Prior knowledge:
Blueprint: E1 5-10, H1 12-16, E2 19-20, E3 22-28, E4 31-36, E5 66-67, E6 73-85, E7 92-103, E8 110-118, E9 121-129, H2 132-137, E10 142-150, E11 153-161, E12 172-177, H3 185-188
Amino acid sequence: LEIEGLSLSVDTLALLQGNVEPHLLELSGARVSLKRDRSGHGNWQPQRGGTGPEDGAEPGGTTGMALRTGELVTRLRDLKVEYTELEWKAPLRIEVRSADVSPSPSGTGLDIELDASVDGQPLRLTGTTATLAQLLESAEPLPLDLSGDLLGLRVTAKGTVANPWSGAQVKASLRLEGASLAGLRPWVGEVV
Length: 192
């Protein structure tokens, strides 16, 4: 892992009161290499037999501080990830030129702008979707409105999403348009 720049802005008053309330996270120039060995263990996972939460240790200790990320704005610039599985012929390469994620003004989700590539194929995405916390905690349908370019295809996802266990009615459509499915070949194999 290499990082050229990392910045985190927090609410100072909240910090003095024992709460960590980050408002802005900026990461630039990061290089990440993820590899899985023959036994299936990833270099991002804790070492087997070490001490950590999986061995009964309490994660995070007992500082009494609370982390609240509800208003966090995240900006990523020039991020490169290489992911390798031993049985793959070549590693997966993801390059994020820019990614901006912020709470939507309506308070119902996240606004997303992504300009990236996957193995040289453009990946651009803009729109609004629910946060992971909303999906896990809400029993109500949440808005979904994303569009962009993915692996040579124009992608549109519109409607609502919800926690699958909530029983909420969900109505969403996913539309893929393109002259060719060739961009999907690394993911799904040869298209018949």
